[in-house]
Amino acid sequence: MPLMTTKPMFDLAYDGGFAIGAFNVNNMEITQGIISACAAEKSPLILQISKGARKYANMRFLRHIISAAVEENPELPIAIHLDHGDTVDLVKACLSDGFTSVMIDGSHEPFEGNIKLTAEVVKVAHQAGVVVEAELGILGGIEEHVVGVKAEDVEKFLTDPEQAQDFWKRTKVDSLAIAIGTSHGAYKFKHEAKLAMGRIEQIMKTCPGLPLVMHGSSSVPQEFIDLINKYGGSMPNAKGVPEEQIYAAVTKYGVCKVNIDTDLRLALTAKIREVFATKPSEFDPRNYLGPGREAIVSMVRRKLQALNSVGKAEAVVKQWKKLGEPMPAYYKK
Ligand SMILES: [Zn+2]
């Protein structure tokens, strides 16, 4: 059962020209859609859970849904990750819930405060054999409890390469989410998105060996926005990061992990709206959640292509075996 930390994944992704997709899970259909897509494409994956998802689904339910996904796919390298953790207590809860990776987001704290919080989480998590992602710089957009900077201020809060080096040395964090012009949610940009690729290059230079993470990287494909609007929705001016830019950030600049949440929500919503609009007498949830789940499968498969992670599962499992990573304590019970 290759349930692992992100280390074996990032070891290969770092200079392998691919990134690991980190997909947010909130319920059974979303989890099944993600896992079927990754099984079909033989892609390693990260299932990530936010504080809001823990609350919505009840962690005990989510944990069993995820365990079922892992059991059903014994060949697939999977990491279970906390998305945007904000306190040491939440991280500790995730450690006892069997997470293999946690994010602590102290990006809204002053620099020293972010270091202090992150270093404390690193200490606690490493003792449990769990890896830590932190964030430096501030993204735009809004997602759950994470409120970013306004679009016109994004430039000012990009990650500083020298600070990143200092941050990494002092916290011993395992990976770093950077602000390079991406933004959370479905309304990322007023005009065309432009990622600060040069900034990624600079951070790679000041922090050689540190895996970098992109948040706020959904593409918000226009065809899904059109479907939602056609079938009674109202999402004018939604805009994301074009998939070509994601592909470049991953293959050319070495980003190791890309978070995808909004695009899954759009795919599910578009499909459910379509069923409701075209079959108004339908009332069996399986007949709209089922097609919704299929829409998630196609969206995730499309993302795995953009991340160039298709077919990388086997190599990651090999690396995991080579490292001889122990199972997190939770699974030894
Ligand atoms: Zn995020």
Ligands present:
zinc ion
Sheet-strand content, in percent, reads 5-15%
Give the strand order, joined by hyphens, for the main sheet. Answer: 1-2-3-4-5-8-10-11
User: Would you report the number of β strands?
Assistant: 11
Mean pLDDT: 93
Descriptive account of the structure:
There is one protein chain. By secondary structure, this protein is an alpha/beta fold. Helix content is 48%, strand content 14%. It is built from 14 helices and eleven strands. The strands form two sheets. An eight-stranded parallel beta barrel has the order 1-2-3-4-5-8-10-11, surrounded by seven helices. It has a three-stranded mixed beta sheet with strand order 7-6-9, with no helix packed on it. Strand 3, helix 5 and strand 4 form a beta-alpha-beta unit. Helix 1 crosses helix 13 and helix 7 crosses helix 8. The radius of gyration is 19 Å and the shape is globular. The site of zinc ion has 6 residues, from loops.
